[in-house]
Amino acid sequence: MVHDITRAAIVGATGYGGAELIRLLQAHPHTEVTCVLSSSSSGTPLSGSFPHLTNIVELELEAIEPAAVKEKADVVFLATPAGVSAELTPRLLEQGLKVIDLSGDLRLKDGAVYEKWYKRSPASDDMLEQAVYGLSEVYGEKAAGHSVISNPGCFPTATLLGLIPAVRAGWIDPSSIIIDAKTGVSGAGRGIGLGTHYSEINESVKAYKVNAHQHIPEIEQVLGAEAGQEVIVTFTSHLIPMTRGILSTLYAKINGAHGTQEFIDLYRNFYAGRPFVRIRENGIMPATKEVSGSNYCDIGFSVDERTGRVTIVSVIDNMVKGAAGQAIQNLNLMMGWEESTGLHFVPMYP
Ligand SMILES: NC(=O)C1=CN([C@@H]2O[C@H](COP(=O)(O)OP(=O)(O)OC[C@H]3O[C@@H](n4cnc5c(N)ncnc54)[C@H](OP(=O)(O)O)[C@@H]3O)[C@@H](O)[C@H]2O)C=CC1
Ligand SMILES: CC(=O)N[C@@H](CCC(=O)OP(=O)(O)O)C(=O)O
After folding, report:
1. Which of 65, 80, 121, 321 could lock onto 316 through a cystine, CB 3.0 to 4.6 A?
2. Structural domain of residue 58, as residue ranges?
3. Is residue 329 part of a domain?
4. How remote is the CA of residue 187 from the centroid of ligand 2, in Å?
């Protein structure tokens, strides 16, 4: 089948998410990056911000003008901080552009909840309603033909892929869920600060945003819809001295009696035909290195008959499945292409 080339613009092209989108899209057969945008560095070459792209992407950064973007692109990826997309997305849609937003601006359907956790004004109700929540393996079909996709957060991606099959099957008690999550430092973006300074985080591990993380309401919103009841979770994020990766350890009380092999079979069936979720056998747990640089989410299980709890471990690369890779997976689903198009990256190992 012949595909026309879809032209992609990247807003936030000087950041980590933008750079990863540009890197991954080089391998996409139906998409070309035609336009890179910056609020602070327009008029400078992209390779000035990212020397690793020298002789690969020879584009100049441009100012963010929706009408000018329309001349050069069909779809716009927003790899921008919270607050940008709420204002920019309606202006891009007015131009007839499609939008895939990597920020948290369009994920929470209740603007008041967004305001409480992000401490900012929310997008309009109309915008929030229009945005499809793009957890590809679970809600990806809803993306087809839509104009605006909200890419899930990195922690929610690992966590929800690890929990939804069990919650939907009624195998775990949703009120018992505890999420212990670890992330590499690239999750904080390219900006510099004491919290991510090398000598502050190297050879150290710390919990942060405890009981205040902006991904808590996102996880609760989705699990609540899956369970058909309000779900409140305990979630703690930890910063680990590594560049990429998220490991989410999930604990929940089992309803009835289900062994490790039953969980493995349940998840294998749930994700059958979905190329990017891999289920580990025999209680073997995945490691972040086993998905690094790829769009995979790997999940392992261990039922503890002593406590009546299941431990589920879910790993992703935060920059790929947690951000740019899933955004491209959502582009594929939006455009009606095979969902793995351009995403067949083997993890880097070791
Ligand atoms: N890093 C990760 O693992 C993940 C990130 N995300 C989300 O993706 C988004 C991008 O993250 P990331 O790339 O890591 O962050 P970075 O801080 O690395 O990059 C963000 C970019 O946004 C641009 N920007 C800043 N202010 C504005 C503005 N007012 N208008 C337009 N552009 C602006 C900046 O570029 P310039 O100054 O050139 O305009 C900057 O390079 C964030 O919302 C983040 O929360 C989601 C999942 C995972
Ligand atoms: C290490 C680190 O700081 N990670 C970030 C990841 C969140 C993110 O990327 O932002 P979104 O809300 O747009 O998903 C954090 O925990 O806040």
Report:
1. 321
2. 6-130
3. no
4. 5
Site to substitute for ligand 2 among 215, 238, 320, 321, most atoms within 8 A of C-beta? 215
112 and 200 housed in the same domain:
no
Q: For residue 4, what pLDDT is reported?
A: 87
Whether this model's pTM surpasses 0.90: yes
Number of domains present in the structure of the chain: 2
Within a domain: residue 327?
no
Catalytic residue among 8, 143, 154, 161: 154
Q: For this structure, is 35 an active site residue? A: no
In a domain, 304, yes or no: yes
Instruction: Kindly tell me if the per-residue pLDDT of 1 is higher than 80.
Output: no
Ligand 1 within 6 A of CB of 214: no
Domain check: are 106 and 183 in the same one? no
Nearest residue (CA) to ligand 1, atom 29: 84
- Residue 68, C-beta contacts closer than 8 angstroms, at least 6 positions apart: 62
Kind of pairing between the strands at 148-150 and 206-208: unpaired
Q: What pLDDT is attached to residue 3?
A: 66
CB–CB of 260/302 below 8 Å? yes
Which residue's CA lies nearest to atom 15 of ligand 2? 188
